[in-house]
Amino acid sequence: MLFRSYRFALQRFGAGARTDTRAVVAVSFTRSATWNLWRRVQRTWGSASLAWPHRIVTLDTIMCDLLHDLLENGLVQWPNGHKTLDVHDSWASFSGTVWSRSAYALRVNAGHVEIRTGFTRQYGARYPPAVIKKNLQEGICTHEDVRSVLEQLLQSDLCAERARVRLASTMRALIVDEAFDANDLDITVIEFAIRTGVEVTLVGDPWQALYMFRGARPEAVLDLI
User: Fold this and answer.
1) Angle 143-153/59-72 helices, nearest 10 degrees?
2) What is the Cα–Cα distance from 199 to 174, expressed in whole angstroms?
């Protein structure tokens, strides 16, 4: 954690800060990790170190920013035309689970996000698709939904180029904590930042990767390095 704090300060107050007003951004995968780093940076370097636009956030926050930018620029349309989404961690605050085979998925078709419902092979404790569909149509979704839609959009050259422009225009440096927990979408966004000239620092230990359940690929991070 100490290294992350010093690295953030180096990027924040280095010579580039005098002429480049873009953000220095540090990201991790959980709110607790970002909070601990935020608190250490503030205590060590003062509140000015985190003055806007510089920030320490979850990587999900970056994903939301990219999707909102694509919505705002008309490269994708959310159901009912929402351009600002209300993003939650899960559907738990809207409904309890039921034992069911019903499921939903979001699919991007010709620039439109479509809500599709169906059935899985096995029963499980799931949130009712009818409740989820109603909320999605009102511009409410989860971080998992954001990631699902963004992953599909970045397969389009036009959307991928816009995402690179967004990263390049808003960041001058990106510090990724616990980088070996990154999955394919995370790695794609990190690589976009690298290729657009953002100064990227990856911090982590391949033997401490915790998020295999969400597709963490430590070997892909090694390839990226």
Assistant:
1) 60
2) 6
Higher pLDDT among residues 185 and 222, named by residue: 185
Q: Which helix (H) or strand (E) holds 98?
A: strand 98-109
Q: Which residue, 139, 162, 193, 132, is CA-closest to 69?
A: 162
Neighbours of 201 (CB within 10 A): 17
Give the span between the Cα atoms of 117 and 79, in whole angstroms. 15
Tell me how far apart the alpha carbons of residues 36 and 28 are, in angstroms, rounded to a whole number: 10
Give dist(CA 223, CA 214) in Å, integer: 19
Q: Identify which of 5, 24, 26, 77 has the alpha carbon closest to the alpha carbon of residue 179.
A: 26
DSSP annotation of 191: H
The string of pLDDT tens digits covering residues 164-209 is: 999 999 999 999 998 888 899 999 999 999 999 999 999 987 766 5
Question: pLDDT averaged over the chain?
Answer: 92
Q: In b/e form, how buried is each residue of 117-126, taking b as 16+ CB within 10 angstroms?
A: eeeeeeeeeb
Per-residue pLDDT band at 18 (split at 50, 70, 90): confident
Distance between CA atoms of residues 121 and 107, nearest Å: 20
Give me the DSSP letters along 176-220.
ETTGGG--HHHHHHHHHHHHTT-EEEE---GGG---GGGT--HHH
Determine the pLDDT at residue 166.
98
The helix (H) or strand (E) run that includes residue 201 is strand 199-202
State the sign of the Cα–Cα–Cα–Cα dihedral 170, 199, 214, 185: positive
In the structure, what pLDDT confidence band is assigned to residue 38 with cuts at 50, 70 and 90?
very high
Kindly report the number of other CB atoms within 10 A of residue 154's CB atom. Answer: 20
